Amino acid sequence: MEDEMDPNKKKMYDKSGPRIAENLKKRHFEAYYCSTAEEASEKAMELISGEDVVSWGGSMTLTELGIQEKLKRRGNPVIDRDTAQSPEEREELMRKALLCDTFLMSANALSADGILVNIDGTGNRVAAMVYGPKSVVVIAGMNKVAKTAEEAVSRARNVAAPMNAQRFCDRMTTVCTETGQCGDCISEQSICAYMLVTRISRPAGKIKVILVGEDLGM
């Protein structure tokens, strides 16, 4: 999240963001445009009941907004894989997350006409998007928007994935961790094992998208 954004970029975001939200609504997503990260955080909390069991996928955007800690302070029951004491417990928590009330995540990219694109190594985020949780809340900065669905897929593979891979350089080796660029690898350690293109929300309103007029995440 940038402390100071170029004012012309901000104007561009605030003009185009509401239009993209309307395109998402046409695809049966419940969609909102929030001009600032603070507004987005408030909207996310508003969309989540205080009684909901909440979990989330790995997301720099969620961390930047501090939503997980806000939920814990509010008293929401949460399923947090980072509290696990062993790899086995972590895996079990990730499985339980697929049956939570609300699952939080970001998007690796989305198209201007309202198609979401996500790419995953273990598949837990894309699995939750498809089926399981009663509600999915997706928070994405306007920096994730691409003009077309094809360009969104390209952004997910060639921008988001190589950037995310840098976080794991100490425990995995792939082409992108070494070169900083996607090499279309088939490594067992690849974080690009699963790709999900979400054209519509089914049932309508299950997936809630909050677009943020700032640069958030990768």
Rg for CA atoms: 17 Å
**What's the domain count?**
1
What composes the largest sheet? 6 strands, parallel
Q: What sort of overall outline do the alpha carbons produce when their principal axes are compared?
A: globular
Our count of helices gives 8
Estimate what percentage of residues fall within beta strands. Answer: 15-25%
Q: Helical content, roughly? A: 25-40%
- State mean pLDDT (0 to 100 scale): 94
What's the SSE pattern? Answer: HEHEHHEHEEEHEEHHEE
Q: Provide the structure class.
A: alpha/beta
Q: What is the CATH superfamily label? A: NagB/RpiA/CoA transferase-like
| CATH architectural designation | 3-Layer(aba) Sandwich
| CATH topology grouping | Rossmann fold
Spatial order of the strands forming the largest sheet:
1-10-7-4-2-3
